[in-house]
């Protein structure tokens, strides 16, 4: 796998293009033996001896990547128990923008063909590009696993192979829930509804979810493992994943004005359908009676660019439970529970669309354990996981044992369960909280990500430029303009030393910001960031842009200055950097803390700005290199 920025379009990575060029030069095709992943690793258990690995051109004369557009009929399950993944793919075909992000459509078996294909997946907070060749497991010259209704169409089979490679093997895909695949295809956050506990407005929830592009799956639980994927008298299959592809209302007959609510479902097998009323659809009432649970994957902004009315904002925190240090188990183990990783949650903005009079903040917490499917062949199983939420007041330190012994949680996950992810929606009052993710048993070591999501309702954005502000400039803006004009002179440009004078004069008048003044080195970094013509000086327009950044960063800084000392705790650097729009790995967060925190583990405003200026410059350079390459 090679990491890709999720915003790169088209999705032809230089690494892939280099392979194509090399294969063209030597007049050969990319093969599995040259790739990172060997087919014997993809088939790590019972399949290896009975299957043949065939190049797709050997299966048919005219192989095609996509025939007549990708649709749900292109996904027919084979001998692998991965219906949960195929149900997610079927839902994906309802939205071309989502589908062609995962399955880049410029690929083919004809022009410039080099035997290589690539697909993108969301993988624990990052988008990764997975490369595969054109060799697929077969038996008697027939595809063994996923296939299309069109014999010469192979995008779904190749997508399945790439997903198997992501998780280590085909066999690692046996068994799962649709939510897992939906999230890997979108980066979204999934909510679960048990039919026995579903809200009255479930049909409305489903309809709105499909309208905003959410993916949806459902299933019928089987309490007896031996009866998994057994057919019922109604034609439905227990222990099997379905995708919900539409909900609609229609008249029961021409004579009756009343309407019936219908749900359209897709079985990844491509056959064995509901044989009750309405044929390939079923009434919503029958749907609730026959299915056990439904999963709705809400898309994040980077997954669905045109979702302007219903925007999810998601923050991602990486963590790990370390035996003997931070693997404390659940609340049943009070002596170690407090040692689990802790994450601060500040709820400041109340819902503006609530249908009742309760003043509260709605949010979703999702705890996901990492890499357990990939490590299954090593004997790893999913941990039983969950989380608790406690209210706190101003304490910035890791909460100690006494806090949890004397207090009760404000909210928690419904249960500890052995799923990859535990997700739940909450409504709490404004305030400060701490989230404690944990395994049920202590001393279990593993990695996880904790996602926190809020929904914001915004007005549609216009493509036209915003009109110039007609309001008066703030006193602060007038001050910096005056200082700039005094120092810049007739040229209306300033150097690093002059920028230092301007900023220090303005910041010195702000009593709630503690700083010994911006250093010359910090100001040189700011000049380098904003100087578009390479003169080593910035003009008034560039200075305005810099000033707007500084005001934005100042707002973030003040938000995390909990004790109003003019500094922030180094423990908050991860959150402030995330709020500024940067996502880094744990190692970089550690390095930044060591570099910019003082001996009291605090960061002043000058150091904070210096950090963000360097990060912005680094990301700017990375984007430039991507464009050049």
UniProtKB/TrEMBL annotation:
Alphabetical UniProt keywords: Calcium, Cytoplasm, Hydrolase, Metal-binding, Protease, Repeat, Thiol protease
GO CC terms in record: cytoplasm
This enzyme's EC code(s): 3.4.22.54
Keyword rRNA-binding: no
GO molecular function list: calcium ion binding; calcium-dependent cysteine-type endopeptidase activity
Active site: 83, 240, 267
Domain Calpain catalytic, chain residue ranges per copy: 57-300
UniProt function note: Calcium-regulated non-lysosomal thiol-protease.
Protein family membership: Belongs to the peptidase C2 family.
UniProt name for this protein: Calpain-3
Organism: Cyprinus carpio
């Amino acid at each position: 796998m090679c990491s890709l920025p999720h915003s790169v379009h088209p999705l032809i990575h230089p690494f892939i293009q280099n392979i194509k060029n090399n294969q063209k030069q030597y007049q050969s095709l990319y093969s599995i033996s040259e790739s990172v992943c060997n087919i014997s690793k993809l088939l790590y258990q019972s399949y290896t001896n009975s299957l043949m690995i065939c190049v797709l051109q050997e299966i048919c004369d005219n192989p095609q990547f996509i025939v007549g557009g990708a649709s749900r009929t292109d996904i027919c399950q084979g001998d692998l128990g991965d219906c949960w993944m195929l149900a997610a793919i079927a839902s994906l075909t309802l939205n071309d923008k989502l589908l062609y992000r995962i399955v880049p459509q410029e690929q083919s078996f004809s022009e410039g063909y080099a035997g290589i294909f690539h697909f993108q997946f969301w993988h624990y907070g990052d988008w990764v590009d997975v490369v595969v060749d054109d060799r697929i497991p077969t038996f008697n010259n027939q595809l063994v696993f996923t296939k299309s209704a069109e014999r010469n169409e192979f995008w779904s089979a190749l997508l399945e192979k790439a997903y198997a490679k992501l998780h280590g093997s085909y066999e690692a895909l046996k068994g799962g829930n649709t939510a897992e695949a939906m999230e890997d295809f979108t980066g979204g956050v999934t909510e679960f509804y048990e039919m026995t506990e579903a809200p009255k407005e479930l049909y409305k929830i489903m309809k709105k979810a499909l309208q905003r592009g959410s993916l949806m799956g459902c299933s019928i639980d089987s309490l007896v493992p031996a009866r998994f994927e057994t057919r019922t008298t109604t034609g439905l299959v227990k222990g099997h994943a379905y995708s919900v592809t539409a909900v609609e209302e229609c008249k029961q007959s021409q004579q009756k004005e009343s309407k019936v609510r219908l749900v359209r479902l897709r079985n990844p097998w491509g056959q064995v359908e509901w044989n009750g009323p309405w044929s390939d659809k079923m009434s919503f009432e029958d749907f609730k009676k026959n299915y056990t649970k439904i999963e709705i994957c809400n898309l994040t902004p980077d997954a669905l660019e045109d979702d302007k009315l219903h925007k999810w904002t998601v923050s991602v925190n990486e963590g790990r439970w370390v035996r003997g240090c931070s693997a404390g188990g659940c609340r049943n183990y009070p002596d170690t529970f407090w040692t689990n990783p802790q994450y601060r949650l500040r709820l400041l903005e109340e819902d503006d669309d609530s249908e009742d009079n309760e003043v509260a903040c709605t949010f979703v917490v999702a705890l996901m354990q990492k890499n357990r499917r990939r490590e299954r062949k090593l004997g790893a199983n999913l941990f039983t996981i969950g989380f608790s939420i406690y209210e706190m007041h101003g304490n910035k330190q890791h909460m100690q044992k006494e806090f949890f012994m004397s207090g009760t949680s404000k909210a928690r996950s419904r249960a500890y369960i052995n799923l990859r992810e535990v997700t739940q929606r909450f409504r709490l009052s404004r305030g400060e909280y701490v989230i404690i993710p944990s395994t049920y048993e202590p001393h279990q070591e593993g990695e996880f990500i904790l996602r926190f999501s809020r929904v914001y309702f915004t007005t549609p954005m216009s493509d036209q430029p915003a009109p110039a502000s007609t309001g008066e400039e703030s006193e602060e803006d007038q001050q910096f303009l005056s200082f700039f004009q005094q120092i810049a002179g007739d040229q209306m440009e300033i150097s690093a030393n002059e920028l230092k004078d301007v900023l220090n004069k303005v910041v010195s008048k702000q009593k709630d910001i503690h700083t010994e003044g911006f250093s010359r080195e910090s100001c040189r970094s700011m000049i380098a960031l904003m100087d578009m013509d390479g003169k080593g000086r910035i003009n008034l327009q560039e200075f305005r842009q810099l000033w707007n950044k500084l005001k934005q960063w100042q707002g973030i800084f003040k938000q995390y200055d909990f004790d109003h000392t003019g500094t922030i705790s180094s423990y908050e650097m991860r959150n402030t950097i995330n709020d500024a729009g940067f996502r880094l790995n744990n190692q970089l967060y550690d390095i930044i803390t060591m570099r910019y925190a003082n001996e009291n583990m605090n960061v002043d405003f000058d150091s904070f700005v210096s950090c963000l200026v360097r990060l912005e410059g680094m990301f700017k350079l990375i984007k430039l290199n991507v464009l050049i390459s």
